[in-house]
Amino acid sequence: MELQGSCHCEKVKFTVKSYTPVPFMRCYCSICRKVGGGGGYVINIKGQYDTLKVEGMEHVKVYRGIKDKSLPKNKQELCESRRHFCGECGSMLWGYEPQWPEWCYPFASAIDTPLPEPKRPNCIMLKYKSNWANVPGPEEADLFDEYPNDSIESWHKKNKAFIEKE
């Protein structure tokens, strides 16, 4: 499925192919909730990095979070993950993890293409959530203190939401 996305000011537009387009995983980690907006979590989708096409790349900036801010400043390290955002309006666009160079992770909030609705979301990294963040109960969502064992692809396959490669 080809996804089309953009920032709020529309200076950055992009397309990317995804075989796993259901926005099912809500990440409540401290980095995601800080950079992703006011809801207390972020939702990413997995896309094929080699299909990512960007208009307005000159407006894109990259942020790398700090792994553990509780350490003294001289012991802190940057995360490997890169979060791309519009330098004009601040909209989060996609993430990239160098350890998985074949993938990128568009923020669901940046996607303009209608997306499939998840039947049951995963709420992850709850160990790090803000006390005020709204989390559905176990009757509505699958809850995880850290990362679940299922990958994005295996979740899609298990839930019959995986789009077979063309």
Automatic annotation (TrEMBL):
<dbReference type="Pfam" id="PF04828">
    <property type="entry name" value="GFA"/>
</dbReference>
<dbReference type="InterPro" id="IPR006913">
    <property type="entry name" value="CENP-V/GFA"/>
</dbReference>
<keyword id="KW-0456">Lyase</keyword>
<feature type="domain" description="CENP-V/GFA">
    <location>
        <begin position="3"/>
        <end position="129"/>
    </location>
</feature>
<dbReference type="GO" id="GO:0016846">
    <property type="term" value="F:carbon-sulfur lyase activity"/>
</dbReference>
<protein>
    <submittedName>
        <fullName>GFA family protein</fullName>
    </submittedName>
</protein>
<dbReference type="InterPro" id="IPR011057">
    <property type="entry name" value="Mss4-like_sf"/>
</dbReference>
<keyword id="KW-0862">Zinc</keyword>
<keyword id="KW-0479">Metal-binding</keyword>
<comment type="similarity">
    <text>Belongs to the Gfa family.</text>
</comment>
<dbReference type="GO" id="GO:0046872">
    <property type="term" value="F:metal ion binding"/>
</dbReference>
